[in-house]
Write a structure and sequence with these properties.
Length: 382
């Protein structure tokens, strides 16, 4: 079978990058007899890094089954649609893991992946123009696709509700976590990462962007409500690319008088993240909305306690192991963090339960279910 996969989504930050990277570096290994056509931007370092990783994993005798097709235009651009008019894809299937499906594709069976419908949600914080743009492109994509992959039941239900997609057209294929996330007992490595980022012996950790739906103002407010003893023992460390929203958060921490307990790390190298999860005492995910919630699974896979909101898909992903709270209630958030810090940190039962929960989100399971969707899509188009 000849399958096209567009990995240009991989340069964007967040769970989507993890999804694309892990999937395209696993599918050709699990199904080596297929011919894989990879659309990429050869000027994008992140995408070239993925391609190099793939070639390092695929046996030399199977590398002839990988074909690269360079697309100069970035996603989310007019050129992106125009450039595809000159492509004549002869694949039996094209997988596009994003919402802005190129307009120029011929009648090849298409699978798209929906990660979330955040711009259409009540917490989307998008302008009317952006909301309309997202709606029109996403609705066209799901109509054009032979099959739609949703990374959670929550995202599937949102697609049915907001885009009027028939439920039977959508397959739920949960996102996986990176296998690099696991308990680490390499003391030298952990010490090196602790020193590199100047991390305390114990700390609460958040990783992700700083957009409004991540609910970080309420996180700061809730952290400020913790007892002085807990704040002294567990400073708050926030990772994620610095943005205009970050300065607002810095100002809010100062207004609350907790600036000495709060650290903004900025962007953290992906290779360092597993060690930071291992070093953290507690990982907190306060989002109002998540299509999946990678941080909860990644933290659990590392054996770290988790406190997270009931926003979006987080409860179905985190299972019964995490401490949950209403993301709109600062009182509940404070109480959940306090209970987790008092009862869950260094608790072997919590640690083992979290690792078991994370095992449900294996990349091999995701690859197997994705390939099944490919087969269904081709069959439906015959």
């Amino acid at each position: 079978m000849k399958i096209s996969f567009d990995l240009r989504f991989a340069h964007l930050p967040g769970g989507g990058r993890v999804y694309v990277r892990r999937l395209i570096t696993t599918l050709p290994l699990e199904y080596p007899d297929n011919h894989w056509v990879l659309y990429h931007n050869r000027w994008c370092p992140h995408q070239q890094e993925i391609i190099r990783e793939l070639y390092s994993l695929v046996p030399s005798e199977c590398q002839g089954n990988i074909e690269l097709r360079s697309v100069r235009a970035p996603m989310l651009s007019l050129r992106h649609h125009i450039e595809f008019l000159r492509f004549h894809d002869t694949s039996e299937l094209y997988h596009y893991p994003h919402f802005d499906l190129p307009l120029g594709l011929r009648r090849v069976p298409i699978v798209i992946t929906l990660h979330d419908l955040y711009p259409l949600s009540d917490v989307g914080y998008c302008s009317a123009v952006k909301r309309a743009y997202f709606y029109r492109l996403t609705r066209r994509a799901v109509r054009r696709a032979a099959r739609v992959i949703a990374i959670s039941e929550y995202t599937k239900n949102e697609a049915v509700r907001l885009l009027d997609v028939p439920a039977e057209k959508i397959a739920v294929v949960p996102q996986s976590h990176d296998p690099a996330h696991h308990p680490i007992d390499d003391i030298e490595l952990l010490s090196r990462i602790r020193e590199k980022y100047n991390l305390s012996e114990r700390f609460i950790f958040y990783t992700g962007n700083h957009k409004p739906h991540k609910n970080l103002v309420r996180l700061l407010n809730s952290y400020a409500r913790l007892s002085g003893e807990l704040r002294e023992t567990y400073p708050l460390v926030l990772a994620g690319g610095l943005s205009p929203q970050t300065q607002q958060l810095v100002s809010r921490a100062a207004d609350l008088g907790i600036e000495k307990y709060v650290t903004f790390l900025g962007w953290v190298a992906a290779d360092d993240l597993p060690a930071i999860y291992n070093l953290a005492s507690l990982v907190v995910l306060p989002s109002l909305y998540e299509g999946f919630g990678c941080a909860s699974v990644e933290a659990m896979a590392c054996g770290t306690a988790v406190a997270c909101s009931r926003g979006g898909a987080i409860p179905e992903v985190a299972g019964t192991t995490a401490r949950f709270f209403d993301p709109y209630s600062e009182e509940e958030m404070t109480a959940a963090m306090a209970r987790a810090l008092t009862n869950d940190v260094d608790n072997p039962q919590v640690r083992e339960a979290g690792i078991r929960q994370a095992e449900q989100f294996s990349i091999y399971k995701t690859a197997r279910l994705t390939y099944k969707v490919y087969q269904e899509a081709i069959k439906n188009e015959l």
